[in-house]
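Notes to self after the Tuesday call (sharing in case useful).
The group wants a holo model before anyone commits to mutagenesis around the pocket. I volunteered. Ligand is pyridoxal-5'-phosphate. Logging inputs and output together so the record is complete.
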Amino acid sequence: MMTLSETLELVRPNIMRLKPYSSARNEFTGGNAILLDANENPYNLWNDDLTVNRYPDPLQREAKLKIAKIKGISPEQIFLGNGSDEAVDLLIRCFCEPLTDSIAIFSPTYGIYSVCADVNNVQVKEFILNNDFSINLQQFFNGISPSTKVVFICSPNNPTGNAQPIGTIEQILSKFRGIVVVDEAYIDFCPEKTSLSLLNRYPNLVVLQTFSKAWAMAGARIGIAFANPKIIATLNKVKFPYNIGVPSLSVLSRAIEQYSNTKSLISQIVSERELLRLRLQQLSCVKMVYPSDSNFLLVKTTDANSVYNYLLNNGIVVRNRTHEPLCNNCLRITVGKPYENSKLIQILNTYRP
Ligand SMILES: Cc1ncc(COP(=O)(O)O)c(C=O)c1O
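Result:
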């Protein structure tokens, strides 16, 4: 288990030393000031309800207060990014020295971790999940090195759909001498499986969540990193000053006000997922449907390329994962609206090999 000071020693020295860009708006909290500091246009032309002529709050303070309230977390433990993808990139840039350090991932998993590592010239240590999509801890601890600075655990995992047990995550947290990132993009579909409650015990834990999935705001581009305030301060230092726009923050505010509606929509999607699973399992082109804690199903078909193209020719786009490890002949299918799911089943019923 790492202490806070050991965790902070993992930050790259140049980032530790970095003096961040500072805007006058960083210090400004009051209302009705005459704003002549940022070379903006003083006229609000395009939308009466949104002051898009002004730069947004660089630290998104109002949004963080609201998120803190619904998550039971302090605002200082919250970073907001232009999607959680921004947090992935920043974590790699803050903790991994290019050409020297590595990250660890458990494949098959979300592709952005290795893309961001590649962009930053950081090596990727890839560990293949067990056949039941659980993490092989022994293989992980044997395969990492002192230069492995960040491990990404996607839970629930994309594309396999399963959440990792909290016990597994804690075993990694207690022994790994680096940053443990748990990507919970799909956690709203299985909220009881979150690692957020571990945050106060492990200074090297970062939990990523997003408003892109269950919250129906993929187009707004808002992701969250929850972590120790010192890690959050480090991410804030490196991010671009105005990383989330005024319209996105306004939609977020509305969405949080209507949190209870979102929760009932989430349970509808979960019920629809189970209905879709039953209907898929009856199809002759489906060999098995894996259990899911998320809003998609990983489906093993008789021939993924052929089924994929058939669906595409019939105007239905799914994700072909057949070339991913452990996913031979698998398609990843998002749970849609009831009529979309019915159409999918109807088309698949007419598929002939
Ligand atoms: C596991 C996982 N993490 C993160 C993301 C991206 O989230 P965001 O839209 O917040 O960048 C996705 C999107 O597909 C995902 O599957």
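Two things stood out.
The radius of gyration is 22 Å.
The first strand starts at residue 78 and ends at 81.
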